[in-house]
């Protein structure tokens, strides 16, 4: 009954399974969180690299049109639905403006402003509810607007209006907060391409990071479920700012992003560290390390715009490891890393000047440190911010 071929097949499969099991032995993750490579690592990288390269091509073919992407999205039925826009700007004079507006269910907007005009001498100003970021809309509509902040697209992928009228308070410098009457009237413009996390990430980088994780059907199901559309664009923000009747005109190199998806659960994110910066040479970077243990314990994401080549390049390597920085809950304020993109390596030095922190979402699920920074990139001066997130398990009890 059994031919020589059957015996060979059975023996071969048994051997294969044996070696597979042998190679699939895992060392415990670093701090119980950050997965390490095992014997199957390179096989997994190869497999995933092939799969992602194919997906990249098919995703490109069905790229959403710009109008659909840019419009304010209808929130999904999920209680954690999200549609978020975000602006983060800085310049060489030490000025900063960070504005986040994430539309959630039940009129909630996870929203905030951080403003620093160096020449005002006032330090960092912030929305009065800080460290809370729960703002509420007055009516249910599809606009990124609440409590005096309003962000409106004017021309898709080219022009946005950003306005604020209300109070801002001094934040973090002293125990007593002072309130100021603030008006911000700003226009963001860009003629640079945008970077989509669906189609423009480096497949080899992504494959390498996925290969750290133990794979199973539920692992891939989770990845599928968590998917959010996320794209970003560098541009320039010109703002007229009035603080207690005193006027300031500022111009900031400003990254903006738009994220939407069926749901965002901040509880899934253990930590991340995002760096975005512009150099005096006109290069722009966004480099992130993300630890979201159910999907990626060590994801490297990011890209750079090279002024010299007038082109966007995905980040292919970055040697910053989350577990080597701020693991007790305080992000680093003076450090460095290297990042590779477009075949070039850049050495990046980071120095935090101001370190305002706050909590995101209704139950304060996450704590964010929005560090306003100086950068030095291969000896060239730069400016921007480093955003470090930590899961906040205590919720609002943390301040009790
Ligand atoms: C910001 O202002 C301080 C003085 O308040 C000054 O020492 C510093 O040089 C300024 N920073 C920049 C980047 O101009
Ligand atoms: C930088 O990229 C990360 C994703 O890697 C994103 O979450 C973050 O919002 C970006 N930073 C800015 C300032 O847009
Ligand atoms: C930046 O500096 C590093 C280390 O000195 C060097 O290897 C790299 O080639 C430099 N990159 C650029 C773009 O000049
Ligand atoms: C960075 O910031 C610090 C603190 O504000 C300042 O003293 C220093 O001159 C800045 N460095 C650069 C390179 O801008």
UniProtKB/TrEMBL annotation:
Protein name, entry field: Uncharacterized protein
Record field: transmembrane: 7-23
Keyword hit for Transmembrane: yes
Origin: domain of life: Eukaryota
Keywords from the named record: Membrane, Transmembrane, Transmembrane helix
Transmembrane found in the keyword field: yes
